[in-house]
Design goal:
The protein is α+β, with helices and mostly antiparallel strands. The chain is built from nine helices and five strands; from the N terminus they run ββααααβββααααα. Strands 3-4-5 form a three-stranded antiparallel beta sheet, covered by helices on one side. A hairpin with a 6-residue loop joins strand 4 and strand 5. The protein is elongated, with a radius of gyration of 24 Å.
Length: 223
């Protein structure tokens, strides 16, 4: 078996572990569920049918059903990250749905894993279009609220809201003389908002290479 590789931090702030895929010739010889069977299983899961019931209905082992469910969920999360961006809803409804893992919170002991017990599905819903803008599964605590709000903010904030928040919250005041420089900065930040900090820093360094702006020139520049 190959070594496990770490893929970093996901949108749910959990470090994912993945086994590398096998060689193509080995994958070609593996059993793959027919597309029609996969569709039947996914539809049954969406209807709330239990995994063991689907096992009896289709004859597919429950482990295979769970792997298909994980694959479908990962694909849905990727689609959400690619498509639900820069939206401008008039109104959002934020709510949480309670559930529990393995046992309820009242029966949790100090020896139990932190992921057991009460769990909440945090949901942001557009009441007009019924679009689920984002969701988060976690405890009902400050950390979960932070990650939920951070992901929501990345999906609904446009250029002008980021500009206003940056000018008011960071710069506090922007003079007319240097307004074009501030606009260029926020324009770059917005266009590179999906790039990690390290790559964004390298992009900036490449742009300023060989250029020089003296303080005397900046204060004497005419608007």
């Amino acid at each position: 078996m190959g070594q496990i590789s770490k893929s970093g931090v996901s949108r749910h702030a959990v470090q994912q572990l993945h086994y590398p895929a096998g060689p193509p010739e080995r994958q070609a010889g593996m059993n793959v569920l027919a597309k029609e069977t996969q569709i039947i299983i996914v539809k049954a899961l969406l209807e709330g049918t239990s995994i063991r019931s689907i096992d009896r209905m289709t004859g597919v082992h429950r482990d295979t059903i769970m792997r298909l469910e994980l694959l479908a969920g990962t694909s849905c999360a990727n689609l959400l990250d690619q498509k639900v961006l820069d939206i401008e809803p008039k109104r959002l409804q934020l709510d949480e749905i309670w559930t529990f893992v393995f046992k309820k919170q009242a029966r949790i002991s100090d020896e139990d894993h932190p992921s057991l017990g009460d769990q909440y599905v945090w949901v942001a819903l557009d009441p007009e279009t019924k679009l689920v803008v984002t969701h988060y599964v976690g405890k009902r605590d400050a950390a979960s609220a932070f990650y939920f709000n951070a992901d929501l903010k990345e999906r609904i904030e446009g250029f002008f809201s980021l500009l206003k928040r940056g000018v008011v919250g960071t710069s506090h005041h922007v003079s007319k003389q240097h307004l074009h420089r501030y606009l260029s900065e926020f324009d770059f930040r917005y266009n590179a908002r999906h790039v990690c900090d390290a790559d964004r820093s390298l992009m900036v360094l490449r742009q300023i290479g060989g250029k020089r702006l003296r303080y005397r020139d900046s204060i004497s520049a005419k608007s």
